[in-house]
Design brief:
Belongs to the aldehyde dehydrogenase family. By secondary structure, this protein is an alpha/beta fold. 39% of the residues lie in helices and 23% in strands. It has two domains: 268 residues, Aldehyde Dehydrogenase, Chain A, domain 1 (3-Layer(aba) Sandwich), CATH 3.40.605; 182 residues, Aldehyde Dehydrogenase, Chain A, domain 2 (3-Layer(aba) Sandwich).
Length: 476
């Protein structure tokens, strides 16, 4: 059984979670200790006690620790990727790529630890100097989702440590294996006891402790919109800093002048890869009516070539849905779409494979209308809806007609339309002729409207959340 990591020691929990592969339900991944209230409290107490010394530690110590973590992740990316594929269901190439991204993130923030900047200004009053510096927030609670079980924890934990904070990390209860493996690597990096703590367990216990305990100064959360709103309210009540990344219902606009091969590739990659289980997935495909039929024909032809199967099997394009609950949600929305009058052009049925798993043929609905539930609500599965548009202006209006605003894409050969779309799409990230899903590790990540709250994640923008500013005056 894999244990919790609290105050520099591996320890038992109050319960045990057993995880199984969604590709093969007979495959037990492992057993993991689950924290109760006492263990969650001990983890927070350890981080609180370690915060003052770590906040004043030299930046080289932080940089060296993060670099060591990144080095080990990259050296073991194939092993970690296999664990990720087995546990969460991403195809092996995607999973290895995610592990490599996690390693690169730690390497990036190892250098960012050395680049924390401040300002020195002249006061408007004579004989005064003004220094503006950044300091750690303190104890950071990190609540990570199941769909990117090593990359998202990396892009939260790495900057938190780089800027001198201590961490209590709660991985998703559905897929604790990658979180535990990451904690195991971190435990060998030379961090002082209490600086990093792993508290696996359910949100109703560990998540509640992180959001309500006054010793936790900031919470970074990625997950569902409903849970994010509860996190926000709990943190706001005690005035803790909070950062939320939540849902998306992202549009991909395909104009009449688009390169059809480019557009189909962007749509397939964005909507269906990673089994559509990405907050950046392009689940609304908005296509100019003049090429509507050609686009649908090309999409269905391409979908027919994709292979759905065991995540560790070579040549597979799409792995299983993560668990039975998510599969039921996907199938429910497929039935809702049919009942609403959308036409199912491809897929949508559960598939049988050599092993018992949660395999779903990607679903493409066409002739959809903007008000349909499956067009407006996040499904978080391999389901995409195609809407016809009467030219660019109509397409832009449809793209913006959503409560979410994480990412938006356009496929066009027109510089005019691409430029206008980048300026007028109401989303935090905009893609031109590339999939809406897939971002670099060294640039800001985040959205607008109902998708995000607080400052951006990743890249140099992460300093805004994980530090606080101090202004100091000195009589010269």
């Amino acid at each position: 059984m894999k244990k919790l990591y609290i105050n520099g020691e591996w320890c038992e929990g109050t319960a045990v979670t057993t995880t199984r592969s969604p590709s093969d339900l007979s495959d037990t991944v492992d057993e993991y200790a689950s924290a109760g209230k006492d263990e969650a409290e001990r983890a927070i107490a350890a981080a609180h006690a370690a915060a003052p010394a770590w906040g004043l530690a030299g930046v080289q110590q932080r940089a060296d620790a993060l670099d060591a973590i990144g080095t080990e992740i990259l050296a073991r990316k194939t092993e970690l990727g296999a664990l990720l594929a087995r546990e969460e269901g991403k195809t092996l190439p995607e999973a290895i790529g995610e592990a490599a991204r996690a390693g690169a993130i730690f390497k990036f923030f190892a250098q960012e630890a050395l680049r924390v900047r401040g300002d020195k200004l002249a006061s408007v009053r004579p004989n005064l100097d003004v220094d503006i510096t950044r300091e750690p927030v303190g104890v950071v609670g990190i609540i990570a989702p199941w769909n990117f079980p090593i990359a998202i924890p990396a892009w939260k934990i790495a900057p938190a440590l780089a800027y001198g904070n201590t961490v209590v990390f709660k991985p998703a209860d559905l897929v604790p294996g990658c979180g535990w493996a990451l904690a195991d690597i971190i435990s060998r990096s030379g961090l002082p006891a209490g600086v990093f703590n792993l508290a696996m367990g359910p949100g109703r216990i560990v998540g509640e402790a992180l959001t309500t305990d006054t010793r936790v100064n900031a919470v970074s959360f990625t997950g569902s919109t409903a849970t994010g709103e509860r996190v926000l309210m709990a943190c706001a009540k005690r005035r803790a800093k909070v950062q939320l990344e939540m849902g998306g219902k992202n549009p991909l606009v395909v104009l009449a002048d688009a390169d059809l091969d480019v557009a189909v590739n962007a749509a397939i990659q964005g909507a269906f890869y990673s089994t559509g289980q990405r907050c950046t997935a392009s689940s609304r495909l908005i296509v100019d009516e003049s090429i509507y039929s050609r686009f649908i024909d090309a999409m269905t032809a391409k979908l027919a070539t994709l292979k759905v199967g065991h995540a560790l099997e070579q040549g597979i394009d799409i792995g299983p849905v993560v668990d039975s609950s998510q599969l039921e949600q996907d199938l429910s929305y497929i039935e809702i779409a049919k009942a609403e009058g959308a036409r199912l052009a491809f897929g949508g049925e559960r598939l049988k494979r050599a092993t018992e798993g949660y395999f779903l043929n990607p679903a493409l609905f066409v002739d959809c209308e903007p008000g349909m539930r499956h067009v407006r609500e996040e499904i978080f599965g391999p389901v995409a809806s195609v809407l016809p548009a009467r030219g660019y202006e109509h397409a832009l209006a449809l793209a913006n007609d959503t409560e979410y605003g994480l990412t938006a894409g356009i496929c066009t050969t027109s510089l005019k339309h691409a430029t206008h779309f980048k300026r007028n799409a109401r989303a935090g990230m905009v893609m031109v002729n590339v999939p809406t899903a897939g971002v670099d590790y060294h640039v800001p990540f985040g959205g607008t409207k109902g998708s995000s709250y607080g400052s951006r994640e990743q890249g140099s923008a992460a300093v805004e959340f994980f530090t606080t500013m101090k202004t100091a005056y000195t009589l010269a």
